[in-house]
Sequence to fold (175 residues):
Amino acid sequence: MKTVAICFVCLGNICRSPTAEGVMRHLLAEARLADRVIVDSAGTGDWHIGEAPDERAQCAAKNRGYDLSIFRGRQITAADFESFDLIIAMDDKNVAALRQVCPPAQRDKIRLLMEFATDAAASDAGGAAQRASGFDSREVVDPYFGGGEGFEIVLDQCEAACRGLIAALRPQLTL
Ligand code: 4NP
Fold:
């Protein structure tokens, strides 16, 4: 049985990428695909290695039924580019940092999460809120130094993009 391995990546691995990991695991379980997709997350930075996700991210996620409490921060390594089929970054800065660690032959594995948010209705909530605050919705914007609203936008975006990602993976998972 074919499996796909995905690692979500942000800066600290305590806000955005654990949120994406929690949402993805939940949606895969709902779709009965949990045994077909390996999901992990990591940060490009090393400040939060071993830490649980940010309390604000955990709380916002819990309100929507996602449990982030078991995740612990870790930093991406060159070996991750061998282990994972897709390395999915939250923003352009993460992509640039990933390229510094990535073996040249594996560069095509690096993608942006919001590329997968193809369902206009589902992505609209996050997109509209981000456009209103002057951000480009092709990125999942760092909520760390902002208020609670940022964590809701991150969740909206992760839900929309993970739905699109599962749809994009389905053809290879049914092989
Ligand atoms: P994340 O958010 O990359 O979504 O986990 C951040 C977490 C920590 C910091 C920055 C962003 N920091 O500067 O410590």
Q: What stands out?
A: The radius of gyration is 15 Å. The chain has a mean pLDDT of 92.
